[in-house]
Amino acid sequence: MNVSVLWRNAKTVNVMNGPATENDILDAAIGAIRREADLHLDVVGRHAEKDDGRIDAIIRMPNGDVRLAVEIRKWATQANLGAVINRISNLAEPGQGLLIADYINPNMGARLKAAGIQFLDTAGNAYINQRPVYINVRGNKPWQAVVARERVKTGKAFQPTGMKVVFAFLRDRQLINAPYRKIADQAEVALGAVGWVIRDLIAQGILLEGANRNQRRLNDLDFLVDKWAEAYPYRLKGKYRIGLFTTDHPDWWKATNAEQFGALWGGEIAAAKYMNYLNPKHGVVYIHKANMGDFLHAARLRKAEPNERQDIQIDLIEPFWKQAKNKGDTEQAGLAHPILAYADLIETGDARNLDTANRLREKYLR
After folding, report:
1. Whole-angstrom distance, CA of residue 306 vs CA of residue 133
2. Is the Cβ–Cβ distance between 281 and 268 less than 8 Å?
3. Angle between the 221-235 and 338-348 helix axes, to the nearest 10 degrees?
4. The pTM is what?
5. pLDDT tens digits for 288-347?
6. What is the bridge-based pairing of β-strands 314-317 and 302-303?
């Protein structure tokens, strides 16, 4: 079988009410590709476990020899695509992972295909590359009702305020059992927010709680890191973005002392300093607005014009957490916490950055 359909005329596919559960999405996507390309896939496992994470399903290809590990995503168009690519890449051996989603728009499909990530959605869009089967379908559209569902909010722990509380836990895991007032102070959130964030984390199985409130413990660190890093760019980072800057000097950061301006390196620069592995090109700097002018002058940075093609991009972000006088075991002077550097790298979707991110995670986020 060899089905290749690129950029067909938009076709609206009848998934009127939209799948409500991951199982619904799985079944609908399998049915859609059967109708679209006469490809018959069998589900041979659901909710499997793997040494380094969860697998939502296992699918068998028609020849019976190839099995694909499946990640199922609701509201996929809201997802951090870099995080999705990284997740599927780590789900199984190369070429053995599969993303199944409610809807994957053409731009997402192109990026996934370029990254070698196979996918299916409930509208019949697909990229499968398993010899002798090759399927590439893009352009199918869901009903408007399904598109509207993509804007539905999810768990409170991964809304902006909740993200700040989770970040405080990731910085200091002992804080999980601290009094609510101390948690609120460290996360810089209202006292009343702490309770509902903790309840949401417990409901998701990320935290476990004993008979007393001071008997909480982290149950699934990997899942928490995955969810936080995926949501970070658009739930939290974007709210604190100061602006995008650029420079004509590739080694600008080497001659700049971030600490002099009360700033912290994030992204590629932080990762390079933590791991001594990556050669940074783009930058993320966590800095207070009051210090921004002096920093820009010293680093010879300029504001990026709206339509300018920047060879070097430097993203300035206002810190959203309480600055600690004493660094934890995982933090280094002048560098943002490893979870921030990790999330910054994952956001890019760049293969070298993803490799570095996973090395950083293995060393600092276990």
Report:
1. 43
2. yes
3. 60
4. 0.72
5. 999 999 999 999 999 998 888 889 999 999 999 987 655 556 789 899 999 999 999 999
6. unpaired
